[in-house]
Specification:
- With 195 residues, the chain is an all-alpha fold.
- The chain has one domain (10-194).
- It has helices at residues 10-28, 33-56, 61-79, 84-113, 120-133, 138-158, 174-194.
- Helix 3 runs antiparallel to helix 4, helix 3 (61-79) runs parallel beside helix 5 and helix 4 runs antiparallel to helix 5.
- The chain is globular.
Length: 195
Amino acid sequence: MLRLPPRMDRFSLGIAVLFAAGACLASLVWLPPVAALSTAILAFAMILITWTDLREFRIPDAVSFPAIAVGAVANTLVFHGADWHAGLAESAIGAGLGGGAFYLLRAAYYLFRGVEGLGLGDVKLAAVAGAWLGYEPLAMLVLVAAVAALAAVLIQNLYSTATHFDRGVAIPFGGFLAPAILIFWLWRLAEFSKA
């Protein structure tokens, strides 16, 4: 059964709804209605995932699973309106590559280190990225999210009172990957609208 996380209170949902509404209104200025609505849905999902992962170190299935299917539809309608087969294929390949690569990375890390270094929520979020964006930008997306996460850890370490760097510190990677997905979606929309 898909459930929202226990800490997903009304305040969190309200913030996500306001953020999504703002994204939709701002998008309507320069995008067709379908693209603006898709942007609002993605903004809602990514803010919930970011907020939950940063607070609880988990990504709710109730948000990530539907985001994969919705992403495939949005990608198809927005970027492949004339050829829906190409849109669905691009999303399916992207979701498979994104989720598959993260799953293999997770398995390899566990094999070599004996501890879980990447959660299944991150694997599903990589599939979300592939469904919304296709397979082409996935490597750059992960690089941007990883650099942002490392920068956050380094800044936190600079302001920490600890005398040494803790290499075992847990990083809520989904909290960095989710905003990057939204940014890359907006970038893709901007590039598409120029063409």
